[in-house]
Amino acid sequence: MEGLQWFVDLGASVMLPVIIFIFALILGTKVKKAIQAGLTVGIGFVGLNLILELLTSSLGPAAKSMVEYLGFDLRTIDVGWPAAAAISYGTTLGSLAIPIGIGVNVLLLLFGLTKTLNVDIWNYWHFAFTGSLVYAITNNFAFGLLTIAVHVMVIFLLGDLLASDIQSYYGFKQITFPHAASAPSYFLAKPLNYVFDRIPWFNKLEANHETIQKRFGLLGDSLILGVLLGIVIGVLAGYNLQETLQLAIQTGAVLVLMPKMVALLMEGLTPVSEAAGEMMKKRFPNRELFIGMDSAISVGHPAVLSASLLMVPITLLLAVILPGNTVLPFGDLATIPFLICLMVPVFKGNLIRTVIAATIYISAGLYIATWVSPLFTEMANNAGFDAGDNSSISALVDGALWTTGLFVGVGKMVGWPGIAAIGIIAFAGLLYVNKIRKKGG
C-alpha cells in the first residue's frame, strides 16, 4: 500500500506517462513509440497545469478582491481541487480508491459490462472524496468502501453513455471521459437539450463558436473575449489600471495557450488509441473499447473555453445573490472548464445553451458545496490539511457535484440500503447499455 501511495503522490504528470507507456507496450506498440507517447502526454499535462495555475493565480485573487470590494460576506472558502485531491488521498480509506477502482473496472470489462478501459488512475481521487465524506458521516469504514465502489460504477456508466457524443463532436476516436468531475454534467445536459429543442424560436438559435465569430467579428474571437472579461473582472475587483491590464492579458493568454497543450496531449494519445482499436478488432471483432482519459483533453476546445470564461463572472454573481450560499468561488474558478466540458458536445457547441445549463448546474452546485462544507472541513482536519485562517472550507470540484450530494445525502439519510440501491441501478444501467441494448440493435 505504501508503494501505491508513493506512486499516487507522483501526480498525474508522472503517473500518466508511466501508465501510458505500459499500456502502449501491452497493446503491441514499439518501445520507442511507447516512450514518446508517454512522455508527450506527460509534457502536455505539465503545460496544461501551468496554464491552469496561471488562471488560478490571476482569477482567484481577483474574485476574492471583487467580493471584498463589493462588500459581500461569504465565509466558506473554495480551496480548489488540488487541495480536495490531497485531502481525499490523505485518508486511509481514500488511499484504497485506486485498487478498488481498478478492480471494479477489470471485473466490468471481463463480464462485458463496460466498454471503458480507464487509464486515468490518478483521478480516482474523486471516488476517494465521496467515500471519505460518507465515512465522516457514518464512521463506518466498510460503508465508505462501498460508496467508492458504487461511485466507480456510476461514472463508468456515464463514460459508456457519453463516448458517442465525445467522438462525434470532439473527434476523439476510441476515447471517453469517465472523469468524475466532468461526467455528471452530461446527465443534466441531455434532458435540458431535449427541453431546449422544444422551445419555439430558441431551438433555432445558432450560437456556436464559428457562428459567433462570423456574426461579431473581432468581438467574437475567443482571445478578445478573454481579454474583455479580464478587464471587466479587474474593474469589479477594484484593481488599478496596471493590475486590470495584466489580468486581461493573462486571461487572454489562457485561451490561446490551452488548445496548444491539448493538441500536445492528443499527439501522445493518438498512437495508443489507434493501437487499442486494432487490438480490439483482432481479439474481439464484435466488441467496442474506449480508453478512459482525463477530460483535460477537451477543455482546450474554443466552445468550452468561451463558455467557461463567461461562467466566471456568472458564478461569482450567483455566489453573492443566491440566498443561503456561503461559498466564495476561489480555487476552482479556473476549473470551471472541467465542470462543463461534457455539456458542450451535447449542445453541439451552442454557447447560449451551454451557459444557461451551466448556470443552472452551478447554482445547484453552490448549495451542495455549502451543505457539505462542514463535512469537507472535518475531512480536511482528519487528513492534517492546513486551512490557514479559514474555519470553513469547501470546493466546486468535487463539493458542488450532484453525485457528491447524492452519495452524502443517501448515506446520511438512508444508509447501507440507499447506497446499495444506487449500485443496483448503476449495474442495471451498465447491463442494459452493454448487453441488452446491444442485442436489440
UniProtKB/TrEMBL annotation:
The keyword Transmembrane applies. This is PTS galactitol transporter subunit IIC. Its main location: membrane. It comes from Virgibacillus halodenitrificans. It is a multi-pass membrane protein. Residues 4-434 form the PTS EIIC type-2 domain. It is found in: Cell membrane. It comes from the Bacteria. Keywords: Cell membrane, Membrane, Phosphotransferase system, Sugar transport, Transmembrane, Transmembrane helix, Transport. InterPro entries: EIIC-GAT, PTS_EIIC_2, PTS_sugar-sp_permease. The keyword Transmembrane applies. The chain crosses the membrane at residues 6-27, 39-63, 83-109, 143-163, 223-241, 247-269, 289-322, 328-347, 354-372, 414-433.
